[in-house]
Design a protein that fits this description.
Layout: E1 5-8, H1 14-24, E2 30-33, H2 35-40, H3 44-50, E3 56-62, H4 66-78, E4 83-87, H5 92-106, E5 112-116, H6 124-129, H7 136-149, E6 154-156, H8 162-168, E7 173-176, H9 194-200, E8 204-207, H10 209-212, H11 217-225
Parallel strand pairs: 1-2, 1-8, 2-3, 3-4, 4-5, 5-6, 6-7, 7-8
Helix pairs in contact: 4-5, 7-8
Length: 226
Protein backbone atom coordinates (compact mmCIF):
# COMPACT_ATOMS: atom_id res chain seq x y z
CA UNK A 1 0.00 0.00 0.00
CA UNK A 2 1.25 3.48 -0.84
CA UNK A 3 1.32 5.48 2.37
CA UNK A 4 -1.36 8.22 2.51
CA UNK A 5 0.67 10.27 4.99
CA UNK A 6 1.85 13.80 4.23
CA UNK A 7 4.44 14.24 6.97
CA UNK A 8 4.38 17.67 8.61
CA UNK A 9 7.93 18.93 8.97
CA UNK A 10 7.25 21.34 11.82
CA UNK A 11 10.84 22.24 12.59
CA UNK A 12 12.57 25.62 12.93
CA UNK A 13 15.38 24.86 10.48
CA UNK A 14 15.72 23.26 7.07
CA UNK A 15 18.52 21.08 8.37
CA UNK A 16 16.29 19.48 11.02
CA UNK A 17 13.42 19.13 8.56
CA UNK A 18 15.65 17.62 5.89
CA UNK A 19 17.18 15.14 8.33
CA UNK A 20 13.74 13.86 9.31
CA UNK A 21 12.45 13.88 5.74
CA UNK A 22 15.43 11.89 4.48
CA UNK A 23 14.74 9.09 6.94
CA UNK A 24 10.98 9.08 6.40
CA UNK A 25 10.86 9.50 2.60
CA UNK A 26 10.40 5.77 1.84
CA UNK A 27 7.49 5.56 4.27
CA UNK A 28 5.29 8.56 3.42
CA UNK A 29 3.70 9.98 0.28
CA UNK A 30 4.92 13.56 0.67
CA UNK A 31 5.78 16.37 3.06
CA UNK A 32 4.15 19.44 4.54
CA UNK A 33 6.22 22.58 4.99
CA UNK A 34 4.32 24.87 7.36
CA UNK A 35 4.52 28.44 8.54
CA UNK A 36 7.30 27.90 11.07
CA UNK A 37 9.72 26.76 8.38
CA UNK A 38 8.36 29.01 5.62
CA UNK A 39 8.77 32.12 7.76
CA UNK A 40 11.88 31.01 9.64
CA UNK A 41 14.04 29.95 6.70
CA UNK A 42 12.02 31.21 3.76
CA UNK A 43 10.16 29.53 0.89
CA UNK A 44 13.42 28.02 -0.35
CA UNK A 45 12.75 25.38 2.30
CA UNK A 46 10.13 23.95 -0.05
CA UNK A 47 12.74 23.52 -2.76
CA UNK A 48 15.19 21.84 -0.39
CA UNK A 49 12.63 19.27 0.73
CA UNK A 50 11.32 18.75 -2.82
CA UNK A 51 14.80 17.62 -3.87
CA UNK A 52 14.12 14.39 -2.02
CA UNK A 53 11.77 13.48 -4.86
CA UNK A 54 8.39 13.53 -3.09
CA UNK A 55 5.63 16.12 -3.47
CA UNK A 56 5.67 19.04 -1.05
CA UNK A 57 2.61 20.73 0.35
CA UNK A 58 3.33 24.38 1.21
CA UNK A 59 0.96 25.06 4.08
CA UNK A 60 1.08 28.83 3.71
CA UNK A 61 -2.65 29.32 4.45
CA UNK A 62 -2.78 32.33 2.14
CA UNK A 63 -5.54 34.84 2.91
CA UNK A 64 -5.37 38.25 1.27
CA UNK A 65 -6.73 40.16 -1.70
CA UNK A 66 -6.81 38.06 -4.89
CA UNK A 67 -3.89 39.82 -6.60
CA UNK A 68 -1.58 39.30 -3.63
CA UNK A 69 -2.58 35.65 -3.20
CA UNK A 70 -2.10 34.99 -6.91
CA UNK A 71 1.45 36.34 -6.76
CA UNK A 72 2.26 34.40 -3.59
CA UNK A 73 0.96 31.15 -5.03
CA UNK A 74 2.97 31.72 -8.20
CA UNK A 75 6.12 32.24 -6.12
CA UNK A 76 5.56 29.08 -4.06
CA UNK A 77 5.04 27.07 -7.23
CA UNK A 78 8.34 28.42 -8.47
CA UNK A 79 9.98 26.94 -5.38
CA UNK A 80 8.58 23.53 -6.24
CA UNK A 81 5.36 23.35 -4.22
CA UNK A 82 3.00 20.63 -5.47
CA UNK A 83 0.17 22.02 -3.35
CA UNK A 84 -0.47 25.34 -1.63
CA UNK A 85 -3.12 26.05 1.00
CA UNK A 86 -5.43 29.06 1.10
CA UNK A 87 -8.14 29.98 3.58
CA UNK A 88 -11.68 29.57 2.29
CA UNK A 89 -12.61 32.75 4.15
CA UNK A 90 -10.88 34.78 1.44
CA UNK A 91 -13.74 33.98 -0.93
CA UNK A 92 -14.08 32.37 -4.32
CA UNK A 93 -12.25 35.08 -6.27
CA UNK A 94 -9.24 34.69 -4.02
CA UNK A 95 -9.25 30.90 -4.44
CA UNK A 96 -9.54 31.28 -8.22
CA UNK A 97 -6.59 33.69 -8.15
CA UNK A 98 -4.52 31.18 -6.18
CA UNK A 99 -5.34 28.44 -8.69
CA UNK A 100 -4.30 30.71 -11.54
CA UNK A 101 -1.06 31.85 -9.91
CA UNK A 102 -0.07 28.35 -8.89
CA UNK A 103 -0.66 27.05 -12.39
CA UNK A 104 1.44 29.83 -13.90
CA UNK A 105 4.31 29.28 -11.49
CA UNK A 106 4.30 25.51 -11.89
CA UNK A 107 5.01 25.90 -15.61
CA UNK A 108 3.41 22.63 -16.64
CA UNK A 109 4.16 20.63 -13.49
CA UNK A 110 1.21 19.22 -11.52
CA UNK A 111 0.08 21.77 -8.94
CA UNK A 112 -3.12 22.34 -7.04
CA UNK A 113 -4.73 24.42 -4.32
CA UNK A 114 -5.97 22.93 -1.06
CA UNK A 115 -8.61 25.09 0.59
CA UNK A 116 -8.65 25.24 4.39
CA UNK A 117 -12.29 24.92 5.45
CA UNK A 118 -12.27 24.97 9.28
CA UNK A 119 -9.15 24.68 11.43
CA UNK A 120 -9.01 21.62 13.67
CA UNK A 121 -8.37 23.96 16.63
CA UNK A 122 -11.91 25.41 16.33
CA UNK A 123 -15.28 24.13 17.47
CA UNK A 124 -18.84 25.46 17.08
CA UNK A 125 -18.37 28.01 19.88
CA UNK A 126 -15.19 29.33 18.30
CA UNK A 127 -16.94 29.77 14.97
CA UNK A 128 -19.81 31.67 16.61
CA UNK A 129 -17.28 33.98 18.27
CA UNK A 130 -16.03 34.95 14.81
CA UNK A 131 -19.54 35.60 13.49
CA UNK A 132 -20.04 32.23 11.75
CA UNK A 133 -23.45 30.87 12.75
CA UNK A 134 -23.02 27.46 11.09
CA UNK A 135 -21.84 24.41 12.99
CA UNK A 136 -18.43 23.05 12.01
CA UNK A 137 -19.81 20.38 9.66
CA UNK A 138 -22.11 22.82 7.89
CA UNK A 139 -19.33 25.37 7.49
CA UNK A 140 -17.01 22.72 6.06
CA UNK A 141 -19.68 21.69 3.55
CA UNK A 142 -20.24 25.28 2.44
CA UNK A 143 -16.52 25.95 2.05
CA UNK A 144 -16.01 22.68 0.16
CA UNK A 145 -18.68 23.75 -2.31
CA UNK A 146 -16.92 27.10 -2.71
CA UNK A 147 -13.58 25.34 -3.24
CA UNK A 148 -14.96 23.03 -5.90
CA UNK A 149 -16.57 25.88 -7.83
CA UNK A 150 -13.37 27.93 -7.67
CA UNK A 151 -11.21 25.19 -9.22
CA UNK A 152 -9.37 23.93 -6.14
CA UNK A 153 -7.91 20.44 -6.18
CA UNK A 154 -8.97 19.66 -2.65
CA UNK A 155 -9.82 20.77 0.85
CA UNK A 156 -8.36 20.52 4.33
CA UNK A 157 -11.04 19.50 6.81
CA UNK A 158 -11.45 18.07 10.33
CA UNK A 159 -11.81 14.29 10.58
CA UNK A 160 -15.49 14.38 11.58
CA UNK A 161 -16.41 16.46 8.52
CA UNK A 162 -15.02 14.18 5.81
CA UNK A 163 -18.47 12.84 5.01
CA UNK A 164 -19.84 16.34 4.53
CA UNK A 165 -17.19 17.07 1.90
CA UNK A 166 -18.00 13.83 0.11
CA UNK A 167 -21.69 14.80 0.04
CA UNK A 168 -21.25 18.21 -1.58
CA UNK A 169 -18.05 17.80 -3.64
CA UNK A 170 -17.02 14.16 -4.09
CA UNK A 171 -14.50 15.13 -6.78
CA UNK A 172 -12.30 17.01 -4.30
CA UNK A 173 -9.19 15.52 -2.74
CA UNK A 174 -9.75 15.37 1.01
CA UNK A 175 -6.77 16.13 3.24
CA UNK A 176 -7.20 15.55 6.96
CA UNK A 177 -5.07 16.89 9.84
CA UNK A 178 -5.78 16.55 13.55
CA UNK A 179 -4.97 12.84 13.66
CA UNK A 180 -3.71 11.09 16.75
CA UNK A 181 -2.33 7.67 17.62
CA UNK A 182 -2.35 8.45 21.36
CA UNK A 183 -4.45 10.51 23.80
CA UNK A 184 -2.50 13.77 23.45
CA UNK A 185 -4.70 16.26 21.60
CA UNK A 186 -2.11 19.08 21.83
CA UNK A 187 -3.96 22.28 20.79
CA UNK A 188 -6.58 20.53 18.66
CA UNK A 189 -10.34 20.26 19.27
CA UNK A 190 -11.34 18.36 16.13
CA UNK A 191 -9.35 15.13 16.20
CA UNK A 192 -9.63 11.58 14.94
CA UNK A 193 -7.69 8.42 14.19
CA UNK A 194 -5.78 7.78 10.95
CA UNK A 195 -7.68 4.59 10.16
CA UNK A 196 -11.00 6.24 10.95
CA UNK A 197 -10.21 9.09 8.56
CA UNK A 198 -9.27 6.68 5.78
CA UNK A 199 -12.44 4.67 6.33
CA UNK A 200 -14.48 7.88 6.06
CA UNK A 201 -12.91 8.72 2.69
CA UNK A 202 -9.78 10.78 3.36
CA UNK A 203 -7.22 10.77 0.54
CA UNK A 204 -4.25 12.13 2.50
CA UNK A 205 -3.46 12.22 6.22
CA UNK A 206 -1.43 15.13 7.57
CA UNK A 207 0.56 13.89 10.54
CA UNK A 208 3.40 15.63 12.32
CA UNK A 209 4.12 15.55 16.03
CA UNK A 210 2.58 12.11 16.52
CA UNK A 211 5.34 10.78 14.26
CA UNK A 212 8.22 13.26 14.29
CA UNK A 213 8.31 13.52 18.09
CA UNK A 214 7.88 9.80 18.68
CA UNK A 215 10.81 7.84 20.12
CA UNK A 216 10.73 5.73 16.96
CA UNK A 217 9.18 7.68 14.05
CA UNK A 218 9.24 4.66 11.70
CA UNK A 219 7.34 2.58 14.23
CA UNK A 220 4.87 5.44 14.70
CA UNK A 221 4.05 5.32 10.97
CA UNK A 222 3.41 1.60 11.19
CA UNK A 223 1.21 2.08 14.26
CA UNK A 224 -0.74 4.87 12.57
CA UNK A 225 -1.77 2.60 9.71
CA UNK A 226 -2.08 -0.69 11.61
Amino acid sequence: MVSPILLALDFPTVREAHDMASVMAPHVTGFKVGLELLLGEGPGAVQEIARLGLPVFADAKLHDIPNTVEAAARALAGHGARWVTVHAGGGSRMVEAAVSGLGDGADGRPAGVFVVTVLTSLDDDDLRATGVSRAVGDQVAAMADLAANAGAEGVICPPAAIGRVKEVAPQLTVVVPGLRIDDDWHDQKQVGSPLGALAAGADYLVMGRAITRAKDPLLAVVQALA
